[in-house]
Each structure stands twice: as C-alpha cells, then as structure tokens.
C-alpha cells in the first residue's frame, strides 16, 4: 500500500462519503432529483478509483455494487424508494468502516454478506427477501487484514463485465481494478480522457458474467472455464482510435493551469500557529520594554510599532488558514435526525442555518460529538410525539433548528426546538433524588442555575437507560467541551414552547485576548470574551437574596456576586478597607482589586492545578511573568454552591 497515496485518499474519501450521505438523504425527499443521483453515482465511482489505487479490492467491490445500483437508477430501470435509500446508507456505513480500517493501516477484507446480496437483488429488480426499513442504522461490521504489498499483474487488474447497454443490446465492458499499479506509466500527458476510454470499450460485445452475481464478500470475480474469454469474434466492430501528432496535440491542448490549492497536514499548520504564538509573546515583551524607554529612543519605538503591525498581519493570515465552514460540523446532523426520529416514532423537520460561517478548525473537530449529543437530547427529551403535539394544539411535525451566527470575534452555535421545554422544578427534584445536589444547595439555586443542572455529570431525567439516554452522559460532555474551548453555554427554555441551547466560542483558539486583573498582590488574566463590562463597586447595591450575595447592576439586572478573594486566596474581600473594582461577566460580578489592561496572549496548558478547575491555563505577560488565566464559568459555579456569602 502506497502510504503517500493513502494520506491523500483518506481526507478526500471522507468528504466523498459525507457528500454521498447528504445526496442519499436528498433523494429520500426528492427521488427524481437527477443532480443528486448523478452526484451520488460519481461519489462511489471516485471512491472506487481511489480504492483501486490502494489495491483495497473489498472497497472497490462495494463501491461497484452501489455504483451498479445507481446506474440502473440513472438509466430509469429503477426508481429511488425509501428502502433503496436505507440500503444505500447502510452501504455507506460499510465503506466508512472500511475507510477506518485503511486509516488504521489494515486492508479491509469483507463486509456483511446479507447486505451485499440485498444490494444485488435490488439492482436486478428482484423483490428483497426479508428486507424492511430499519428504524436506525445498526453498526456494520467490517473485518480487515494487515497491510501487505501483494504482487499485482494485469490479469488481476482487468476483468470482463457483461451488462446491457442503453439501447437494450448486450455489451462487454473491460473493468479495471488497480490498473495503475499493474501497469505503471510515466508522467506523460493523457492521450484520451476517462469518458473517451469508456466509450471505446463500450463497443465490445459478447457473453460474460456480471459482477453483481458475485458474493458480497468476494474480492474479485471468479474465473472459470465457462466464463473465460476466448478470442473475441467482435473485433471487426472495434473502431480504430484516431491519433494525432504530438505537435498537433500540444497545439490543440489548452494551456496548463497551476493548482491554486494545496492540502497541508493539520499538524504542520498547528506548528506554524505555535510559532506565531511565540512571536506574539515576544512582541508583547518588546512593546513593554520600549514603553519604559525615554522619548529619545523614538527610532526604537517606531520599529516596535512596525513590528506590532507585521506580527498582527502574520497572526491574522495564519488564523484564517485554520478557519473552516460550519458545514463540516453540521453535515452529519441530517442523518442523525433521520435515524433517531425514526427510532422514536417522531416527526421532525430539520433546518440548518449558517453553514458558511467560519470557525477555528479545532472548534469544528471538537464539537462533532457535542453537537450530536445536543440534537439527540432535543429529539429524545424536548420534542413530543405527534399525538402529544396534536393534543397540545401543535403541528404534528416538530421543528428543530441548528444555526451558526457570526458575532464579531465570536461564533454562536444554537440548537433549538419547539418542543415541551424544561420544567425547572422537575429538574431540581431529579437532581436531588440522584444525589447530584443536596436539598440545601437546591434552595440557593437561581432559576437559570437550576436549569443548568442538566449539564452535571450523572444527571438524567429518565429513570431507565435506553440506547439514546438515561445514563447521565452526553450533556456534561457538551459543557466540558465548551469549557475547554473557552466558550460559554446559554440555555433558554419556555415550558410548553421549546428550548434553545447555544454555545459561544471565540473565532480562533490560537491567540486569546485577555484582561489582566490584580487581586491584592497576585496578577490574573480573564478572557475578554467572557467579560460584559467594567463597573465601579457601590456598597449599597449589594444584597442577600435566598442565601446568596447579589449585586444590583441597574434597575433591571441583579447578578450573583463572585468574591475572587474568597475562592482563590481563601480570604474574602473587605470593601470597607480595601480598594475594589467590579468585572461583569456572564456568570456574575467578579470583585478584584484593580483592572490593569488587556493584551493578546497564548494559552499554555497547566497540569499541576488539575484539581482546581477554575483555571483555563497560563500565559506569559508582556513583562515576562507567568499569569494564570481564570475560567469565568467554573468560578461562577463555585460561588453559586458556596455555603454563604463572603463579601464584607
């Protein structure tokens, strides 16, 4: 197996499978969509060709089976049905498993024989024996063999296929499997295109055996005495291929166009981003050093300003390279909604908005699992059955909306439904029953904090576990992922009307703008994305409500008061004897001694404070000191569960 070809094939194959899945779902709703049929056919055709280069004959066979089925659809011999879409999707799952085997360095050898026979029966127009539409796509087993380098000759690479032509007459087709490996050629220009090549081969006639008659687990068609091709009697029907001189070919050929795209390993891009991060830190230190010089060093100050602009340009350019559209994050969701809604017997319409919004690749990769959890949770817990919706005066079909919204230097991703909403009292009681919180802690929770109990590990509103929920995992993964990505969660619900869960993330994770804070003698940093505003502290605005210390920001907003001195230094702040300032965040008003200023920073992970989850990491300030970066969400949660108010 050529590892260089494999590395090029894997990302392309993943994209093709996602595209194939999307086109199959499109055909389920619009069976006569000719563009979707053609696109799905091309996806399997391209996958077959790439697998042939890698000598992955099992994948070649599976792609060919599906390609043959879709060829019948293209030729109007068959029509797309829901059962056919089910089989195509399960076939895609088989190929996905084979792709996983290749990624692990193994050759995929076989897939489920029963599914292969179903594909062949459907392609032949026979009724499926024992076939029924599955409620959910089961796991598909694919075995694999260690990578080896088999010797390949022309007889292994080429075989004869017999099938009907478009005009109904019989035809012989010469098929290729790994032909480029069998017959290596130089880097010369192609004389004819693939379409022209197939047209010339279409002129062959005679008896043969269809690949559709092979077992699904066969690696290549059996060659027997009966189907061995003797000297063909149709050579008089083969038309000679017109040739032209090399000079004429060069004259008629369009000028070569250099490629404008380049596929780069993500690890290399990460390495470049790390280098840019170090450059940002050096720029900060230089700016701090120049700021302390006298006015006589104007040249040095000018150089520092020019360097600042250049570093900013480099930083922005590299960050743009890491940006990817949210379509990559959303493309799996239609399949999830389809399978889960079928399993639950619910009718759901999915709307996806903002696929073109771009976000950091690290965020896209990390959110694949959490997004699936959010959608499954909405379908299982939020959306009612058609009968329940009809009884409540709602449309039988529920609406599920997934959206990505660009908000300045942030991206907001929302999953919302028009289901039954979340009952705060029910959630609180379940949390007490399951030991997630105590009754005393429940009394001090605000309405929003009570609702956010659904993100606690081990919490579930169901008493019995199912394939979809009940184990208390899933939503806590969403919260933990948001925290690691320096994001924030926003849960809004109205009983009987629906629920919306949103996540906000910075556009990029490579460089983090922070605000430096002084807490007595210690310096900390807080992400700017977590800060709403700064305010002067006034003692008469502090109140105690339901056992919690709160701060009245204005006539319409009362927020929890978070005493960082009590949490981080085990010593409450005293407003009567200490100078304090307030930093308003999404989790409350943080009390600090002084706000120092903001700066771009590069986050470094820390392991020695793993038991204290209110730190996101550490950075190096412009003055060269190590500064801990605070996690606003974790600090707010710690304050909400404190036994008593601490500000004096």
Automatic annotation (TrEMBL):
Modification sites for Phosphohistidine: 45
Coiled-coil regions, chain positions: none
UniProt keyword list: Kinase, Phosphoprotein, Transferase, Two-component regulatory system
Gene Ontology CC terms: cytoplasm
Keyword Kinase carried by entry: yes
GO molecular function annotations of the record: phosphorelay sensor kinase activity
Catalytic activity of the protein: ATP + protein L-histidine = ADP + protein N-phospho-L-histidine
Domain Histidine kinase: 293-509
Enzyme Commission code(s) on record: 2.7.13.3
Pfam families: CheW, H-kinase_dim, HATPase_c, Hpt
InterPro entries the record matches: Bact_Chemotaxis_CheA, CheA-like_dim, CheA-like_homodim_sf, CheW-like_dom_sf, CheW-lke_dom, HATPase_C_sf, HATPase_dom, His_kinase_dom
Biological process annotations from GO: chemotaxis
PROSITE patterns noted in UniProt: HIS_KIN, HPT
Sequence ranges assigned to domain HPt in this UniProt record: 1-102
PANTHER family (UniProt xref): CHEMOTAXIS PROTEIN CHEA, SENSOR HISTIDINE KINASE CHEA
Role: Involved in the transmission of sensory signals from the chemoreceptors to the flagellar motors. CheA is autophosphorylated; it can transfer its phosphate group to either CheB or CheY.
The protein, known as: Chemotaxis protein CheA
Originating organism: Acidithiobacillus ferrivorans
